[in-house]
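A reminder from the course coordinator: this example appears on the midterm review sheet, so study it carefully.

Given structure:
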C-alpha cells in the first residue's frame, strides 16, 4: 500500500502516465497537481482523487464534470459563490452540475477533489455565451480548457515581475 506525505515526499506531486501531459501543464497556470487512482488509472470507471495546490488569487472559472464529485479544503481558503471556505469545508456536485467560479484566498488554497470516475479528472464542461455547453478533454487540449486561466496567470506573472524590477 503506497503512502504519500504532502509535506515530506518528493513523489507526492505525481500522476499516472495517462494523465502526465495534463499535469505537466498545471505549472503554466501557477499550480501543482497530483492524481491518485483508486483502482486502475486506465479505466474511466475508476474513482480518482485529485489534489490541487493553487496560488493566491487563482480563479477556476465556472464549469462542471461528467460525474459526481466531492471536494474538501485542506489548506488556505477558497471563495465560492460569495462564501469563504476553510480547511475541512466540503463541496459536492452531481454530474453535469455547473459550479464556480472558485478563487483561492490570499495564502493560496490546497484542495482534495474526489471524482466518482476517472473521466471527471480530465473532462471539463464549460457553459458557452449562448447557453450551450462545451466539453474539453484536458489530456488532449489543456490550454484550450484553461485558456482564460493561462492568459490571466501569465498577465499576473508579468505584472509581478515588472513590479519587482521597479522595486
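Designed residues:
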Amino acid at each position: 500500500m503506497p503512502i504519500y506525505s504532502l509535506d515530506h515526499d518528493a513523489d507526492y506531486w505525481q500522476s499516472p502516465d495517462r494523465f502526465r501531459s495534463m499535469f505537466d501543464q498545471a505549472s503554466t497556470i501557477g499550480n501543482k497537481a497530483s492524481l491518485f487512482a483508486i483502482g486502475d488509472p486506465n479505466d474511466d470507471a475508476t474513482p480518482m482523487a485529485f489534489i490541487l495546490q493553487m496560488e493566491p488569487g487563482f480563479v477556476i472559472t465556472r464549469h462542471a464534470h461528467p460525474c459526481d464529485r466531492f471536494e474538501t479544503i485542506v489548506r488556505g481558503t477558497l471563495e465560492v459563490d460569495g462564501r469563504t471556505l476553510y480547511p475541512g469545508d466540503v463541496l459536492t456536485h452531481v454530474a453535469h452540475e455547473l459550479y464556480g467560479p472558485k478563487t483561492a484566498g490570499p495564502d493560496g488554497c490546497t484542495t482534495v477533489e474526489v471524482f466518482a470516475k476517472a473521466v471527471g479528472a480530465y473532462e471539463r464542461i464549460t457553459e458557452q455565451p449562448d447557453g450551450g455547453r462545451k466539453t474539453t478533454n484536458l489530456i488532449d487540449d489543456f490550454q484550450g480548457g484553461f485558456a482564460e486561466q493561462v492568459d490571466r496567470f501569465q498577465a499576473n506573472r508579468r505584472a509581478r515581475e515588472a513590479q519587482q524590477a521597479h522595486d
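Residues 69 and 128 are 22 Å apart (CA to CA). The chain has a mean pLDDT of 87.
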